[in-house]
Amino acid sequence: MRQSNEFDNGVRHDWQYQEVADLFALPMNDLLFKAQTVHRQHFDPNQVQVSTLLSIKTGACPEDCAYCPQSARYDTKLEKEKLMEVEAVIEKAKAAKAAGSDRFCMGAAWRSPHERDMPYVLAMVKGVKDLGMETCMTLGMLDESKSQRLAEAGLDYYNHNLDTSPEFYKDIITTRTYSDRLETLQNVRDAGMKVCSGGILGMGEEQKDRIGLLMQLANMPQHPDSVPINQLVKVEGTPLETEGDLDPFDFIRAIAVARILMPKSHVRLSAGREEMSEEMQSMCFFAGANSIFYGECLLTTPNPAANKDQDLFRKLGINSDHKVTQQPKELEEILAQKPAEKESMFYNAAG
Ligand code: SAM
Ligand code: DTB
Ligand code: SF4
């Protein structure tokens, strides 16, 4: 496989454990600078993609994902709901579009969609697509035939997360395997849909598991088009309810490493923003996050209110009309040099 350094336009799929560990171990400023430099090669640094989530079928899920309030195995006091009516979903999508969202993501608490639900789900895709929005769904595992039908209905993205490293995975989910997940992602890609896949941090994993997750994503034959990085939302009644807090810098580091490993993917600052300060979110954007979920609710848990996000974007100059036209080529050149040369270009204390 072709090797390339991170400053050409090549995208690598052969990241080695030690290389990724070395990125995580960089001094924060070096890591952020590297991530921001990579980010600017592929994206306007002041543009953030905005998606809205809707739970189209809530609760009573047979799976045992330890983080999830929707598993039937945990008493989380969640109201269970049947699959929503198609028209009601389209009304919600219209409201999301009016509020400025580009993409509408519909999630269902299923292990995989039942055949009997497919006609409704396909009608939802068509209806939302007709509004001129991008469509995304997350419905659990997909076989080839269901993937094909969703793609034919016009589904743009399918979200299916790896969640964590292959090694830590069995501590979190026992009802489906890591290879089941990889197979679904393959079916989605083969059907021509864009892949949205990422994971959750703060579940008690170690640094090696964050490295393992990002390596799995970055060493796929094609990088996911969208990479959601969720911070665990600790929900009462789930096995991870009392998990300790994640160090915010570990989260920001993971965003920066995801950006460097998958330079052309949208990295989504996903669940967990309700617990993050504006300053932390701003650091995540600087580290290369360029997508968020927008609107007061994720699937079942709170997300910052839309006006709070609008204020934050205004304060940061995100999604304003300002366009960055010049990429900092000179910075890339400086970064590509050896440390000694780099130093002398900035400051020579002896000189
Ligand atoms: N049931 C489908 C599945 O699991 O594939 C789709 C919906 S599921 C809720 C989508 C993703 O949401 C999960 O894979 C997980 O990464 C994320 N998620 C669920 N609960 C979460 C929580 N408490 N905190 C952070 N992310 C969570
Ligand atoms: C993803 O990675 N995060 C979103 C979306 N994909 C479907 C879901 C977050 C769910 C957070 C917990 C909840 O609201 O139920
Ligand atoms: Fe079910 Fe998805 Fe929650 Fe797992 S994450 S329990 S599959 S809704």
Give a short overview.
This protein has 351 residues and is α/β, with parallel strands linked by helices. It is built from 13 helices and nine strands.
Summarize the helix and strand pattern as letters.
HHEHEHEHEHHEEHEHEHEHHH
CATH superfamily: Aldolase class I
Class in CATH? Alpha Beta
| Unreliably modeled segments | 1-8, 323-328, 338-351
Oligomeric state of shown chains: single chain
What distance lies between the first and last C-alpha atoms, to the nearest angstrom? 44 Å
Small molecules bound in the structure, each named once: S-adenosylmethionine, 6-(5-methyl-2-OXO-imidazolidin-4-yl)-hexanoic acid, iron/sulfur cluster
Number of helices: 13
Query: How would you characterize the largest beta sheet?
Result: 9 strands, parallel
CATH topology (level 3) name: TIM Barrel
Helicity, as a percent range: 25-40%
Helix/strand/pairing category: alpha/beta
CATH architecture, please?
Alpha-Beta Barrel
Structure overview:
The chain is an alpha/beta fold and 351 residues long. It has one domain: Aldolase class I (TIM Barrel), CATH 3.20.20. Helix content is 39%, strand content 12%. The protein is built from 13 helices and nine strands. It has helices spanning 17-24, 28-42, 86-98, 118-130, 144-153, 166-169, 178-190, 207-218, 248-261, 278-286, 306-316, 329-336, 339-346, and strands spanning 49-57, 103-108, 134-138, 157-159, 194-196, 199-201, 226-231, 266-269, 291-293. The chain has a nine-stranded parallel β-sheet. Strand 2 (103-108), helix 4 (118-130) and strand 3 form a beta-alpha-beta unit. It is globular, with a radius of gyration of 20 Å. Iron/sulfur cluster binds at residues 61, 63, 65, 68, 70-71, 109, 111, 140.
